[in-house]
Amino acid sequence: MLTVRHLVKKYNDTPVLKSIDLHAEAGEFIAVVGGGGSGKSTLLRCLALQEGWDSGKIIYNGDQEISPSWFSRWKVSKDWAVIEPSPQMNGKQTAFRNVVSGRFRQFSYWRLLLGGKPSPEEYTRAMDYLEKVGLLDQAFQKVGKMSGGEKQRVAIAKALCRGAKIIIADDPVSNLDPHSAQRVLDDLKQLYQAEGLLIICALQNVELAERYASRIIGLDGGEIVLDVSGRRLTSAERKKIL
Predict the structure, then answer these.
(1) pLDDT of residue 112
(2) Which of 32, 3, 63 has its CA nearest to residue 213?
(3) What is the DSSP letter of 83?
(4) Mind listing the pLDDT tens digit for each residue in 172-209?
(5) Which CATH number fits domain 2-241: 3.40.250.10, 3.40.50.2020, 3.40.50.300, 3.10.25.10?
């Protein structure tokens, strides 16, 4: 589904990512781990198509090469969703309205001009995904009154509603209490297989990566130094990334 070849990213001529090679398929939950300055946040921004890179390739679905240009990244971005530590949503609108807004890119200009009223099919789709993240009973509660964990689950439902095939999550549980973090990661773990998604998630907490990910990738100094199936890491493997 997603192939990265010799990806290089520099800031002020200093390499932050050094010839990254990676292949990921649908139905994987990949945790990216590493210490401060390892390059994991930069890698996620590139994989999320939020910024370009200096050299190398990102190939989507085996044959669609994405260039670093804004337009090339934008053309395929409808299949991507990004979940931030503090999701950007309209706190004055309901969970349902925030979720269904993920479909706005599919709306015509005239439909948006008339207020973007969802069709019955879109209503059902949004409610189905709110149910999958356990928030059906709060569908018409304003997001601004929700907890951090609930907001993250709304963000997940929004990503699924828009039809995203790839979800890039930059440590989505860093601002949550342990119980809320567990619930968010439980949702992601259940959904990536059921929906055939590719989830690439940076995590500061290695224990959470060991518990939830199907695969763990470790970075150090802008290079991949670890690529193993999701399991408890050995002491030697931990030393490579911490």
Answers:
(1) 42
(2) 32
(3) E
(4) 888 888 888 888 898 888 888 888 889 999 999 999 99
(5) 3.40.50.300
Indicate the SS3 state at residue 172.
coil
Domain spans of the chain, in order of start: 2-241
Three-state secondary-structure class, residue 240: helix
**Three-state DSSP class for residue 37:** coil
Strand order in the sheet with 198-202: 80-83, 166-170, 198-202, 28-33, 215-220, 223-229
Contact between 129 and 194 under an 8 Å Cβ cutoff? The reply is: no
* Distance linking the first and last C-alpha atoms of the chain: 29
- Structural contact between residues 181 and 173, judged by C-beta atoms closer than 8 angstroms: yes
**Distance (Å, whole) CA 188 – CA 145:** 23
Query: How many whole angstroms separate alpha carbon 219 and alpha carbon 121?
Result: 43
Residues 184 and 208: beta-carbon distance below 8 Å: no
Q: Which pLDDT score, from 0 to 100, does residue 92 have? A: 87
